[in-house]
Write a sequence for this structure.
């Protein structure tokens, strides 16, 4: 039987959909997370107020729960710090801006951890699923309650991540400020190490992430790989063909070097020719001037809402995502669902992209490979369109419903193994 489960999250969408699947199966105890838009009367009112409505829709209004997730099971924590994070992160408080955002994020995470720790010993949940960095206080109660402790880890192991990003900073010092090393403090690393040690299992999204754990010394048997999903209704191919005659490459994601942005810009500079364009969308990471010398090469679309991102995909011919390090990139799946062939690396997307069928897999840091693949897709429009159709078909196998079903099965298997272990102890 699927265990009664407590879910602890900050903002990772896969845990939204795990909570939804548990709720539909009536196996969700409580879902603790950042503020969620439950479509209450005051939230609907805020969305309609002139001026305020735009801010609301770009911050808290975006956080709509998946259909099927019982809002009465959702508990928010750290709302005031969360509100301050949203204002600074979106650049509304321009004078303080992103300098203050990390401190507010830390306060939100601390509030979630504290709320979870208070609830875990009283709920009687049979399993805890918690995102990395939020799990330790709850996991410490596991030995008292015989609960299964599952750590959700959506990116490569922190030591693997640190080593790769440190190497990249040495290779490309002019954009080192944009690498956003998440695990910089030893205190945070120690917390996450303890979470991994206490976990019964670690849920990851790709084989690449699993391999990063194994090379970092974590037993392969402890890692459960469950691919993430995509909303194939929101992200879909355009109904008709574009008639502007452009060949348009598109990148969406954090505007930082972890996504390989510098390699894309250098490659596009060498590739560009009449009738070709590059569009870039996403949130700036670190120094906003790090890529300034390449600004003339592309059109910057800003940080897009989901509907705007879906529209941008439909206006492109290829999605280029030369990332250095991913878990299972949702933006790549969204591009494929929109019918775009992709050019991306083996460091995360290799479970998704079939090389030469849905697009191309290339090594990291390989500008020449980006140039070659852009050239091929530009010169072979029929093959490019067929790859786009293949990509859409491939994406249909990676829905959030499929993710939820696999996650529930994994929970059920872990609960069964735990009960057998207790019976023979």
């Amino acid at each position: 039987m699927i265990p009664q489960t407590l879910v602890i999250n900050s903002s990772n969408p896969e845990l939204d959909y795990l909570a939804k699947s548990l709720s539909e199966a009536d196996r969700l105890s409580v879902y603790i997370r950042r503020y969620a838009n439950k479509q209450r009367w005051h939230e609907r009112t805020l969305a309609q107020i002139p001026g305020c409505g735009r801010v609301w829709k770009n911050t808290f209004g975006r956080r709509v729960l998946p259909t099927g997730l019982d809002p009465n099971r959702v508990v928010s924590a750290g709302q005031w710090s969360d509100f301050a994070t949203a204002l600074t992160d979106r650049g509304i408080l321009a004078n303080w801006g992103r300098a203050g955002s990390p401190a507010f994020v830390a306060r939100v995470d601390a509030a979630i951890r504290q709320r979870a720790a208070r609830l875990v010993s009283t709920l009687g949940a049979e399993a805890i699923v918690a995102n990395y960095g939020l799990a330790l206080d709850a996991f410490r109660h596991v030995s008292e309650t015989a609960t299964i402790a599952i750590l959700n880890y959506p990116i490569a192991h922190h030591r693997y991540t640190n080593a790769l990003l440190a190497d990249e900073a040495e290779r490309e010092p002019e954009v080192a400020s944009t690498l956003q090393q998440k695990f910089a403090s030893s205190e945070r690393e120690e917390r996450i190490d303890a979470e991994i040690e206490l976990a019964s299992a670690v849920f990851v999204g790709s084989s690449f992430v699993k391999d990063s754990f194994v090379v970092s010394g974590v037993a392969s048997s402890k890692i459960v790989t469950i691919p993430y999903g995509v909303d194939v209704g929101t992200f879909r191919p355009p109904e008709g063909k574009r008639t502007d005659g452009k060949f348009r490459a598109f990148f969406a994601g954090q505007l930082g070097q972890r996504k390989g942005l510098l390699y894309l810009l250098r490659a596009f500079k060498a590739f560009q020719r009449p009738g070709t364009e590059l569009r870039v969308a996403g949130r700036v990471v670190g120094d906003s001037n790090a890529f300034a010398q390449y600004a003339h090469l592309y059109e910057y679309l800003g940080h897009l809402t989901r509907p705007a991102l879906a529209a941008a995909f439909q206006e492109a011919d290829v999605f280029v995502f030369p990332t250095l390090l991913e878990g299972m990139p949702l933006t790549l799946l969204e591009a494929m669902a929109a019918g775009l062939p992709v050019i991306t690396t083996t460091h995360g997307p290799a479970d998704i992209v079939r090389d030469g069928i849905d697009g191309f897999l290339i090594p990291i840091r390989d500008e020449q490979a980006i140039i070659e693949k852009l050239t091929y897709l530009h010169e072979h429009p029929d093959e490019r369109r067929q790859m786009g159709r293949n990509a859409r078909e491939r994406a249909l196998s990676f829905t959030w419903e499929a993710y939820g079903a696999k996650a529930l099965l994994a929970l059920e298997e872990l609960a069964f193994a735990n009960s057998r272990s207790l019976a023979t102890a």
User: Anything to note?
Assistant: The radius of gyration is 22 Å. The chain has two domains: 5-229+400-424, 247-395. Confidence is low (pLDDT under 50) at residues 91-100.
